[in-house]
UniProtKB/TrEMBL annotation:
It comes from Candidatus Methanodesulfokora washburnensis. This is Uncharacterized protein. The chain crosses the membrane at residues 7-23. It comes from the Archaea. Keywords: Membrane, Transmembrane, Transmembrane helix.
Amino acid sequence: MRRGDILGIFLVFWGLSLSIYSYEVLGDIPLTALGAGAFVTGISLLSTVSKSPYREAFDLLLKAYADNISRVLEEFGASSRAVYLSNGSILVPLSGSPRKVPSKIQNSLIVGERGGYYLFIQSPISSEDLSPDIEASLYSVLVDSLGLCDSVMVSRNDEKIILKIRNSRASQVSARFSQVLGPLAAHLACSIVAASSRANYSLEDVKEEKGDIIASLVMIDAEKGSSV
């Protein structure tokens, strides 16, 4: 087993335990966020294996990740679509316009300024691990590494990116998670697209049809805070 695998497994279980204990027992949101960050970092380390022997464990861990993020979203009453940033992190609008992305983001649970506050979440996806080829990156992570679907088709319509995720096998998520971040497979796909293309995206629309997921992503201008 690689050292990275050992570290990844440790971070996953330590982060998950810290998140649950901090949220359920202490009611401490910053510690909960710290645990969630360690958890997703561990998943990111494990998911770099091209032919992962941990796929069943990934399913359980991703489900736990989605459940914990859902609790945080419920706690803050988040309902607007998230913005997926080029570095692999995510901004969830808490107030103001969901299109107004702050140009400077501090490493804090809540970021932004008056008129536009966001919940800052680190996704399991890192831009450092991905090819600039969006389709290749989607296949490498979702199909080859995690086995969450059969294939991912990418097309462009005007300024949008359309994804068709065939035969999604990702776990079901809560209504709140789906409302803000989309189905789990689409959520991960959005992070991959943003990180691979080094651009900010928001999930504009998503449909589920007979096991397939069709997602429409629109690019977000970080400086002007509008779609481009």
